[in-house]
Amino acid sequence: MAKKIGVLTSGGDAPGMNAAVRAVCRAGLAKGMEVVGILRGYNGLLNGEVIEMNARTVSGIIQRGGTCLYTARCPEFRDIEGVKKGRDKCLEMGLDGIVVIGGDGSFRGAADLSAQGIPCIGLPGTIDNDISCTEYTIGYDTAMNTAMEMIDKIRDTAQSHDRCSVVEVMGRNAGHIAINVAAAVGAEAVITPEKPYDLNAIAQKMEQTKKSGKTHFIIVVAEGVGKTEYITRTLQDITGVESRATILGHVQRGGSPTVRDRVVATEMGYHAVELLEQGIGNRVVGMKDNKIYDVDIQEALSMKKPFEEELYKILNETAF
Ligand SMILES: Nc1ncnc2c1ncn2[C@@H]1O[C@H](COP(=O)(O)OP(=O)(O)O)[C@@H](O)[C@H]1O
Ligand SMILES: O=P(O)(O)OC[C@H]1O[C@](O)(COP(=O)(O)O)[C@@H](O)[C@@H]1O
Ligand SMILES: [Mg+2]
Asked: What is the domain range of residue 65?
């Protein structure tokens, strides 16, 4: 049974990470454990940047974006020597387990550390929702709502000027944010890395809808497509509709987390501590059929996430 646990955030930050840190801390304390916060991802483990946590350490953070533990990328942890150094630090501090809040890269580190005898539990924290073993990642809902609100504002000006606005949203190599946000704003088209696209076909559709009285257009592009400026210029050249590109960028990573992100983070954080309490490690906590569950890290990393075909189809059929 775990007596002392650590918690860290790693990789890109995401709204709701603080709610997860709070849940891990409070659940650990409620179960009679000592809890420490490891700062700046695996770097803090290797450098001994660690803070003792009590109930008040996590007061007033549930509503805040970012991560109070800071986050970083730690190249040293990719090598076995770095992982062994991490294990030695855990033994030195008397840590019986660590909760790692991050993405797939962070989970690889957690698997390596578990293999060295330190039970680690991964919690999916990324705005991209690109982690295959889970239907949902902490930060996804907030990021999508932010992108939606931004595009609603962009629409006001696109409408006033009879323009086409091409908006790039984040998502790394995945189109989950793009498809859902495009559906939510009623975009004319969405372009994602998972599907081939035809700018002539999109331009033709714009011209058709223009005939029915449409005067402005919103096109959502996932960052993984990587050609937002080119797409904007090409659509303008073909249709003659004045077009502007907007890259939403890091605004999508910040802000106060939504209800969904706070609640899921709390449930996942609690579940992670329950696993460590039983001495279980090398697991990722996820959501399956809308329920919290856990899965072996290697298995989690080998899964593939299905593309949202149905939503993609509905979006395209109703955009005119
Ligand atoms: N293959 C790996 N083995 C061990 N640790 C890794 C590995 N890949 C990534 N990490 C650790 O996890 C950190 C975060 O990974 P990264 O891929 O940047 O973000 P994310 O966790 O969001 O996917 C890396 O900086 C490194 O410390
Ligand atoms: O913060 P950076 O280094 O600019 O990284 C940007 C990337 O991080 C994200 O915002 C989040 O990705 P991760 O959660 O995997 O780090 C991606 O959408 C984007 O591609
Ligand atoms: Mg990643």
From this structure: 4-139+257-302
